[in-house]
C-alpha cells in the first residue's frame, strides 16, 4: 500500500471514530493561513433561515493530533440564510470589504493543523486530514468550489481551490470563490533601471517632472532588501549591491506597499519591483501599493552599511539626501551628537531621539536677539541639522528598542554624547529625515561629551553660594499635604512617586552646597506643618549637619492671599537659607507682578479685509519673593522669580494671529506680558541698597526681550522695539492700557554671560538648548562673582528617569540627583570674606634704666643685706 493510500485509510478510520452529524447547513467555505497572524475561516449558511450558532465552535487538530483543541466558541453569533460569516485572527492585518459579517477571535491554527466546525461535540465540517500531514496547509488560501457546497466530516481536497499565500479576495462572498488567479508578476524582459539613477543627484528624482509628485510612467528596479517597514514606513528598502560609487547619488530606495511586506521579503532577499516613482512629502519612493508588482528572488547577504559622513560645505540635511533609502552606519567620523534624548516627539507622535552634526542645537534667541539676522539664520540652520533616530514600531513605555541596556545608573544617554555603531535605513517623514535603526547598541557606543558629575564644581567655591532651582511641581498632596488655592495636584500622583521626587531633589540640593536656594514650582499650600516647603526642608535637613541646616523664608501675614498662600496659583516660588551662614535682615518682601484682563469685544484685529473682536483674555503671573540677608555686615538682597510660561497665550498672541501657532519671533507666547513683569521688577528693585541678585525661571532665553530689559537693552542701538503688554493691571489698578516702548534696560549683569559667554543652558526644549534660569546681579554684586555653573543634571538627561511613572513602564528609577527636574539648577559662588580684625598692639618691654630701675636694684640690695643679717 503506498503512502497516500495509507494516509487515506488512517483518515477514514479516525473519521469513523469521531462524533458526527449526518447533515448540516453551516459549513466552512474558506481557509486562510497567511503571513504572521493573517488567519481567517469563512462559514456559509446554505439554508433558507438564519441559524443561531450557539453550541458551535471551531477546533483544531494540532500537528497531527487526533484530539481536538478548542479555538473559537461561536455562542452568541448567528448567520443569515445564504450568507457568510468571517472569523479573523484578532492580531492579523486582513481588511474586508464593507458590509462583510465578521468578527475577530482566537484563531491559532498553522499549516500543520486540521480545522473543524463542531456542533455540540459533533464534527459538522472539516478541512484537513486527521491526523494531519506536516505543512499540508502552510501559507495557502483554500476556497470551497461552488459545486461542492456540502459539509463533509472527511476532508476531500477535490472540493477546494488552492490560492497563493495572503489571498484575501473573496472572503465574505461566495461569488469571489475560485476566481481566476492573477498572473504572477515577472520582471523578465523588463528594462531594469539602476536605483541610483532613480534617485539622481538632486533633492527629488529626475523621473518626477518639475511641479509633479510622480513619474509619468512606471520604472522597474532590482535590488537587495536591507530592511522591512511594518509601522513607521509600510514597505521595504531596496539597495543596489554595487552602486555607481558616486557620493552624490543614493544606492537605496524605499518601496511603498501600504501594508506589511510578505514574509518572503526579508533582509538579504533580492526583489524586483515595478511602479511609479513618487516624491511623497520629501521621500523618494517606488509606489507598488495598487498592483503589487514585485518578484522575489534568491536570498543572499544584506549589503554592508555605508559609513555616514557630512562633507565639507554641506549641511546634515544635504548629506542625508545623498543617503536617502540606504542602509548606513553612524561611526566616529559621522560626528553626530545627541541633541534630544529619547523622549516624545510631538510631530511624529512617538518616542524617538534627535541628533545633530558636531554639536547639540542651541536656541537661536539664547544667542541672538529675536528676529535679528543671526537668529533668523540659526533657525534655518537648526532645521537643516536634525536627524531623528527611530524604531520601526512604536516602543513600549520605558524601552529603547535599539538600546536594550538603557538604565538609570550606567546605561544613560545625555545631550552632547556622540552616537556611534548604530545602523539603520534613511527615510523622510513629518518634515524631517529619520534613521530607522536595524541593530542594537550598548552604553559603550556613546562617546561621552560632558559626563555626569556627583556635584557641581562650584559647590566648594566662594564664601557663600546662591542657587536657583525649578523643582518640577513638588506637591505633597498624596501624603496629606494642605491644599493649594486651585485644589489641583500638578505633581506626584502616588506616595511612591512623591517620596522619589523628594529624594532626588534632596540629593541635588545637598550636592549643590548652596547657602541660599530659590525654588520654583513648589506647591502653593502655605507654610504650615503640612506645607510642601516644610515637607521638603524637613527631609533636606536629615542630610545636613546642624551648621548647614536649612530654614525657609515666610512672607508676612499681610502679604498672604486668603491668609495663607503666596498668590493664588497652584504653584509658587520659595526660598531656603542656612541660618548658620546668613541671617535675615528684615521681613520678606513680595513683588506683585502684572495681570492682563481684556474683556470680550474690547480689542480688534484685521486680516485679509476681515475684522474680528477678541474672545476675552485673562492672564496672570506668579509674584516674586525678595529677602535681604546680612553677611558680615553686608546686605545681599535675593529675588526669586517665575515669570509667565511660554505655552499659554496672551492678548498679543491673538492680535498677531498666533494664538494657535508658535510666534514668529521665536520667543514663545506671552512675551510682551513677561516684558511687563520685567519692567515692574526693574522699577521695584532699582533703589535696593547693597548687593542685589535676581534669580529664577524667567521663561525667557538669554537674548529674549525680558532679559534684555533687565540688563543692557538700549532702544537707540536696537533695530527692533521692545514693547510691554496692553490691558495690564497691577495690585488691582490699571497699569498700562496700551503697551509702552522700553527705552532703556535696568542695568543688571547676566552673570552667566559675564563668566561664560552667551552659549550657556539650563533647559532643553524640542532639541534646542538655552537658559531659562538666570542669575542677574547689580554691579556691586557682579564684582563679587567667583564662578557660576549650570549643573547639568536635568536638561541633558532623559525625562524617563524623572519621578513620574506614567510613561516609563517598568523602567527602574533612582534617588540620585539626575532627572530630579526638567531644569538645571544654577549655582552662583560669591566672595564675602570675613572682616579682618586689626592686630592688637603688643605691650612694650620694661626699661631696666630710669628711676624705677634704680629703685628695684636698691630694694633687691636691701633685701639681700637683710637675708645675710639673718
From TrEMBL:
Q: What superkingdom does the record give? A: Bacteria
Describe the location of the LTD domain by residue ranges.
16-153
The record's SUPFAM superfamilies line, in alphabetical order, gives: DNase I-like, Lamin A/C globular tail domain
Protein's UniProt keywords contain Chaperone: no
Is Translocase found in the keyword set? no
* Signal peptide span: 1-24
Which keywords does the record carry?
A: Endonuclease, Exonuclease, Hydrolase, Nuclease, Signal
Write out the ranges of the annotated region (Disordered).
Answer: 593-620
Extract the GO molecular function terms from the UniProt entry. Answer: endonuclease activity; exonuclease activity
**PANTHER family documented for this protein:** ENDONUCLEASE/EXONUCLEASE/PHOSPHATASE FAMILY PROTEIN (AFU_ORTHOLOGUE AFUA_3G09210) (PTHR42834), ENDONUCLEASE_EXONUCLEASE_PHOSPHATASE FAMILY PROTEIN (AFU_ORTHOLOGUE AFUA_3G09210) (PTHR42834:SF1)
- Listed NCBIfam families: ExeM_NucH_DNase, exonuc_ExeM-GG, GlyGly_CTERM
- This chain belongs to the protein called Endonuclease exonuclease phosphatase
